[in-house]
Write a structure and sequence with these properties.
globular; single chain; N-(1-d-carboxylethyl)-l-norvaline Dehydrogenase, domain 2; Rossmann fold; binds (S)-3-Hydroxyhexanoyl-CoA; 2-enoyl-CoA Hydratase, Chain A, domain 1; alpha/beta; eight-stranded mixed sheet; 20 strands; 3 domains; about 675 residues
């Protein structure tokens, strides 16, 4: 075996040369890997004894793409598309041996090979769109030539990889290899190509066609999903070019559009989020290799919407759950809702009925906390009331086995105060799920003052297992997300008192990229959460709406009127109530521009984020951004509130906060961290 450089080797196996990439952890295509591949191909071509070449990878995966850490740095030759052209032009057959994931530049490289073989568990995809990019090394030109326009459109705009079996059906791979020995299979495959005189298939030579209507229909069908993002549209244009232009021209179109995306703020934001997601899993003061506790059985207290949704996460991951509810009817209803949710997913074809039954068979409904005695993790998800929660934790302390993790799903309350009623505060933490808990990715893991490192590490790993994006938050009112949301809500309410209408605020927030504005969100959640007819004073707008039975979507009216299909229209009744509110407060309404609405809603949140950082309630600005991305629908192409603040410029944010502060009371007092950074020309994010 010859080392071509630090990350590539060439081994001659009789008449076949095996060119291996070994660049842990994911064999990303760094400059050294690109150089090594070119060297290896050249040496194999030059060696008269070699008849064919296999391109393989060491470690857990085939090439997972370009090296994202090189983005933004001066590009180093050879460029990836040149490497792929060299592979494709090789006079000796090149076979890609794929295991793990062939992603992005990795799949593009494989598409430059004459044949591709893969193990059944392999996944192949072009995820560049998720980084705000498009496959820039011929992927958009080669993929549709192999799998057809429609499949290619789905793959490049979703970024979701496909499994090897489907890839084989679509012609993306030529053969399925045995799971445990892709290399030997690929070598034998290359030998067969040589022996049988099979052609050196060049994807670039294939033809692809599609009617323009296909693209129009695809754009229409996905308009909502792609709203605000540049990359999906650019990817579609590249696939159009693959149909309408000769291969080399199509490549040039792809390169031009790639460069445009690469220099834009959206791709910077999305690449930042890629690393933010991984950074959030790292807890600064936790020693590497911190032990974890085994979690084999979970208990959930409360079978309402939250408790049910939380339980489903674990059932879906194959973990048995005992769900406890005080009231028999509520328990029955809760279990029924969970089954109904699973069955709906099955109806949509995203789950088999066997899986529904398997998941439900892991559920044990119970009316007694004593049934939680042998659980490794118990999550309390009852009404948001400190006394009730304390009572439950006191009982749990006497029931649940030692060493179990006791978690509260509280959204606001002091986890330390809850932990203090137990004899084992080191085993207590917060696990704040977001509704619907079986769908939303965010999990705020609240670290109490006494939460032990192994509890924290266990919960972080468990979160990953159930597909959550976990972010650690310190104990404070509302933790990271709700604490910041409160500020937006406050401003939204003030804005409609001063002159805007709820739909003005919602439109601005929606156009910014959120799935909906604060008043639509309130209608969706229900305006009567925490409201009661007995205690209502009829003073606030919410009181007045609820008193008129305008409780939100569920009553088909709230801030808006709703049709049966949940289409919303502004309500004249609400308009009237809003005007009366202003009058009652002695406020002379004024015209409020969209820009002011946006800044008033977003900048105070950023300011709160700065306070959270300074108080150490979040470890890093990017953790705050992950919370907003995965829990509140902050548009990914803006990177999250803290990243967005950096793109706006902290001086601008600070200046506006001071301006608003001068207009009203001390509501906008800038956080010292924001002042310091703005004055020093600094940023929140790296
Ligand atoms: C591209 O290819 C552009 C082209 O069209 C060409 C243009 C000319 N680069 O996720 P994990 C790191 S764009 C650098 O925890 P897993 C990651 O940060 C690229 N580093 O593992 C982490 O580091 P750390 C298209 C990368 O097993 C470590 O590897 N490709 C890259 O859960 C482990 O990662 C993609 O977008 C990279 N490309 O998942 C694929 N990838 O340990 C992106 C990972 O310090 N990657 N790292 O935190 C993935 O989707 C997942 O990493 C993968 C493994 C599924 C491969």
């Amino acid at each position: 075996m010859t080392a071509l450089n630090d990350v590539t080797t060439l081994e001659i196996d009789g008449d076949i040369a095996v060119l291996t990439v070994n660049n842990p952890p994911v064999n990303a295509l760094s400059a050294a890997v690109r150089r090594g591949i070119v060297l290896g191909i050249e040496q194999a071509i030059a060696d008269a004894a070699v008849k064919g070449i296999v391109l393989a990878c060491a470690g857990r995966t085939f090439i997972a793409g370009a090296d994202i850490t090189e983005f933004g740095k001066p590009p180093e030759e050879p460029w990836l598309d040149a490497v792929i052209r060299i592979i494709e032009a090789s006079p000796k057959v090149v076979v890609a041996a794929i295991h793990g994931t062939a992603l992005g530049g990795g799949l593009e490289t494989a598409l430059g090979c004459h044949y591709r073989v893969a193990v059944p568990s392999a996944k192949l995809g072009l995820p560049e769109v998720r980084l705000g990019l498009l496959p820039g090394a011929g992927g958009t030109q080669r993929l549709p030539r192999v799998v057809g326009v429609e499949q290619a459109l789905v793959m490049v705009t979703s970024g979701t990889p496909i499994g090897a079996t489907l890839a084989a059906e679509k012609g993306l791979i030529d053969a399925l290899a045995p799971e445990d020995d892709v290399l030997a299979f690929a070598v034998a495959f290359a030998r067969k190509v040589v022996a049988d005189g099979m052609p050196l298939k060049k994807v670039r030579d294939l033809r692809v066609s599609a009617e323009p209507a296909v693209f129009a229909a695809f754009r229409r069908a996905n308009a909502r999903k792609f709203r605000g993002f540049d990359a999906p549209e650019y990817n579609i244009r590249c696939i159009e070019a693959a149909v309408s232009q000769p291969f080399d021209e199509g490549l040039a179109t792809e390169r031009g559009l790639f460069m445009q995306l690469m220099s834009g703020v959206q791709s910077r934001a999305q690449q930042y989020l890629f690393f933010a997601e991984r950074a959030a899993q790292k807890i600064p003061d936790l020693p590497a290799g911190t032990a974890t506790r085994p979690v084999r059985k979970v208990g959930v207290i409360g079978a309402g919407t939250m408790g049910g949704g939380i339980s489903m996460n674990f059932l879906s991951a194959g973990l048995p759950v005992t769900i406890v509810e005080a009231n028999e009817k509520a328990l029955e209803r809760g279990v029924g809702v969970m089954r109904g949710n699973y069955e709906n997913t099955a109806k949509k074809g995203r789950l088999t009925m066997e899986a529904v039954e398997r998941n439900m068979s892991l559920l044990t409904p119970s009316m007694s906390l004593h049934d939680l005695a042998d659980c490794d993790l118990v999550i309390e998800a009852v009404f948001e009331n400190m006394q009730i929660k304390k009572d439950i934790f006191e009982k749990l302390d006497g029931i649940v086995k030692q060493g179990a993790i006791l978690a509260s799903n509280t959204s606001y309350l002091d986890v330390d105060e809850i932990a203090a009623v137990t004899s084992r505060p080191q085993d207590v933490c917060g696990m704040h799920f977001f509704s619907p808990a079986n769908v939303m990715r965010l999990l705020e893991v609240v670290r109490g003052a006494k939460t032990s490192p192994d509890v924290l590490e266990t919960v972080m790993q468990l979160a990953r297992k159930i597909g959550k994006a976990a972010v650690v938050a310190g104990v404070c009112h509302g933790f990271i997300g709700n604490r910041m949301l409160e500020l937006r809500q406050r401003e939204a309410n003030k804005l409609i008192l001063e002159g805007a209408m709820p739909w003005d605020v919602d439109r601005v927030i929606y156009d910014f990229g959120f799935p909906m504005g604060p008043f639509q969100m309130a209608d969706l959640a229900g305006l009567d959460i925490g409201w009661s007819a007995d205690t209502s004073k009829g003073v606030t707008l919410r009181d007045q709406l609820c008193e008129r039975d305008r409780r939100g979507q569920k009553t088909r009216c709230g801030f808006y009127d709703y049709t049966e299909k949940r289409e919303h229209t502004p309500s004249p009744i609400v308009e009237d109530l809003v005007l009366k509110q202003s009058a009652a407060h002695g406020v002379t309404r004024r015209q409020i521009g969209d820009q002011e609405i946006l800044e008033r809603c977003i900048y105070p949140m950023i300011n709160e984020g700065a306070l959270i950082l300074e108080e150490g309630k979040a470890y890093r600005a990017s953790d705050i951004d992950m919370v907003w991305l995965t829990g509140y629908g902050f548009p990914a192409y803006r990177g999250g509130p803290m990243f967005y603040a950096d793109t706006v410029g902290l001086k601008t944010v600070l200046g506006k906060l001071r301006e608003f502060q001068a207009m009203s009371e001390a509501d906008f007092r800038p956080a010292p961290l924001l002042v310091r950074l703005a004055e020093a020309g600094g940023k929140f994010t790296k």
